[in-house]
Amino acid sequence: MMIPMNNPPVKNTDTLYQLDELMTQTRKLAAQYRLQTGQILPISNELAKYDAQQILDLCSPTSDQKLKSVDCIAKGTNLTFQVKARVVFKVHAPQRVGQLNLLGDWTQTLLVIYDESYQPDEIYALEKSMILDFLNTLPKGSSHKNKRGAISVAKFKALGELIWSIEQGIIIPLDQFVSTRD
What we know:
Elements: H1 19-37, H2 44-56, E1 58-59, E2 72-74, E3 80-87, E4 96-97, E5 108-114, E6 120-127, H3 128-136, H4 144-147, E7 151-152, H5 153-159, E8 161-165, E9 169-170, H6 174-181
Parallel strand pairs: 3-5
Antiparallel strand pairs: 1-2, 2-3, 4-7, 5-6, 6-8, 8-9
C-alpha cells in the first residue's frame, strides 16, 4: 500500500513494535531473504550499530555533537567509533570490511561479525592510528582500494582486539581497552 505524498506519516508513541522486536524481525527477514534469493539485504551495518550499542553499552552521538562518520560513543570516555559489519556465510570467500572514512572523527572502528542468521558472533576493535599505520606500510603499487580505507576481515582481526564474543561475553571492557592503548 502506497502512502499518498500529501499525508505525512503519523507519529505514534504507542509503537507497534519495540526496537528490540524490530531488530529480531529484521534478522529473520534478512536470513530468509538470503535463503530464498541467494542475495544479501544491505542491513548488516544498521544491525551492527544497534548491537554494538546494546552489547558494549555505547550511545549514539547527539545531533549537536557534529561528529563526522561517528556511529557510537563510549559513555564517560573520549572514544568514538565507526561501526562496520560482516556476515559470515558457509561459503568461505575472502571478505573485506566496508570502506572506512579515514577523515572521520572516530578513534576506533568496531567490526561486528555475524553468523548466517544475522546474530552477532564477535566484535573486534581497532584503533584508527593502527589502520592508518597499516595503510601507510602498503607498497606504492598496491591496490587503491586499500588507500581508500578498505581492509580485509582477516587483516582487521589480526591487527585488532577481540573485545566480545558470544561464547565469552565482554573480553576486554572498554575502560581497560582505553587504558592499555593510551
